[in-house]
Amino acid sequence: MLPAVKKPGTCIGHSSTGYTGFGLPVKKPVFVPMGDHPCSVLAALGQRQSTPGNDSNLTRTLPAIERLVNIGTSAQMAMVLTGADVAKLSSSSESTSSVTENQDSSSFEVRPFLFEDRFLGVAASLSGGNTFAWLVRQWQEWAAEMGLVPTHNNGDEEQAAQREAEVYARLIGLGLRCQDTELTFVPTLNGERADPNATGTISNLRMSNWSMGDITAALSRGLVDNLFDMIPKELQPLVPAQPMIGTGNALVRNELLQRFLLRHLAQPSQLQIQTAADAAVGAALAPSVLAAVIM
Questions:
Q1: Among 41, 49, 89, 159, which residue has the least CB neighbours within 10 Å?
Q2: Are 160 and 153 in contact (CB under 8 A)?
Q3: Which domain holds residue 113?
């Protein structure tokens, strides 16, 4: 028999004595789980609200409309939305559940969140840290082809990793000098979920803006802009005014991406960079948050 469908965070039982051999405590409550992405968003919200100077308590208040940008291998933006925000996505009288189902075919989806009156609007791009890593590899390959660096590393992986880190740092430094480049780089080199056949493009090319710094800055700006362009126009007014959490190794280690992210915010103080947003932490937080809301 299939189990009964229950809401995330519902207590469905307790751990028994039969599992003490695995180190599990007895009579600990077991809750219905959430997906890993909503849990990671909840963990990030919890970490933000636990920072000094923030008096709000996630276990006593529902999350405010907030955004989380994660740039790792790929890139995602999650927006905590109310039912009213979701309703803006449809000009007809479709219900919220219908809107949720109709968004799945595009690069922007509306997903359930912890609470009945909260949803996650998610823009997901296939181009993120993987595309910047491709640029780093390209520069290394071009340098090797020109005979400027050795074409092999003698099997020394540590030296190869160090050289790659140096190229990363060098490209980011050069890009920071060219943040206002007119060069435009659309970074959809891997296509997108909504358009698998999409290709990347470079435009506004001049003899004066084809430096390593220009290319790096244009690519970084393109990665950020591409993600924001996926947000439906009905939700665009929410973008500049709300707080934002930034996560993901590619974003944390790349000041250039952070600079272009700030351009989409009204105030620099709205961005908080976090080094971790673990789904396991969010899963642990979920029961206490839901219990506090129900009370």
A1: 159
A2: yes
A3: 63-91+106-275
* pTM, full prediction: 0.83
Q: Which residues contact 124 (CB under 8 A, 6 or more apart)?
A: 74, 75, 76, 107, 108, 109, 193, 230
DSSP 3-state of 224: helix
Mean pLDDT of 164-183: 97
- Res 290 pLDDT > 80: no
The token pair at 180 is 């206002």
Q: Token digits for 67? A: 């955004």
Decide: helix, strand or coil at residue 207: helix
**Alpha carbon 163 to its chain's center:** 27
Count how many domains the chain has. Answer: 1
Q: Which amino acid is at 182?
A: E
Residue 242 CB-density burial (10 A; 0-12 exposed, 13-18 middle, 19+ buried): middle
The predicted model gives 251-261 an average pLDDT of 96
| Per-position DSSP letters for 243-283, written without gaps between them | -EEEESHHHHT-HHHHHHHHTTSS-GGGEEE-S---HHHHH
Q: What is the pLDDT of residue 92?
A: 35
Segment 152-158 shows an average pLDDT of: 73
User: Has residue 291 got a pLDDT over 60?
Assistant: yes
Which DSSP symbol is given to 200? -
CATH number, domain containing residue 147: 3.30.420.40
Token pair recorded at residue 287: 């029961």
d(CA 17, CA 86): 45
Q: Say how far apart CA 41 and CA 54 lie, in whole Å.
A: 18
